[in-house]
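ESCALATION

Customer reports they have been waiting on this structure for their group meeting. Please prioritize. Original submission:
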Amino acid sequence: MTDPSSPYAIDLRLERFSSQLSVKLGGNQRHVRCEIRRKWLVLQPEEFVRQLLLHFLIKEMRYNRNRITVERGLAVNGAARRTDILIFDQQMRPFLLIECKAPKIPLTTEVFRQAAHYNGPLRVPYLMISNGRESYVAAIDYEARDYQLQLQVPEW
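Update from on-call: job pushed to the front of the queue and completed.
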């Protein structure tokens, strides 16, 4: 999955949303405002990717911000986990689960497996992994126990 020349590696050009992030310096750390959680967070590399993706989803894809949760807790095989981004459809069913990684983290099969593992109790139709530079989206076929890589982020 780490091949940016793959036809399934999607470049969302997330850097274009950088200027739209609210960033401030607090102490020795930079913080970013999460408009979904309505609070300031330490600006770690993974958080930077998450915030850029949120801007992309809301502003470009026109996803409803009221149907987006960030770092939502869930139990996976009895262990507490958190989803990076979870989007619900119009009927409030889980629709798209996104696993974010820092830009320097390669998107490997293991990263996809992590997202699939978190998806166990959710059973979303779409999984996405992103490190900000490249993203992959898969449509999940539960009946066939298979997935199909997509060429774009699904319409909401």
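Sent to customer with the following note: Helices lie at 45-60, 109-119.
Escalation resolved.
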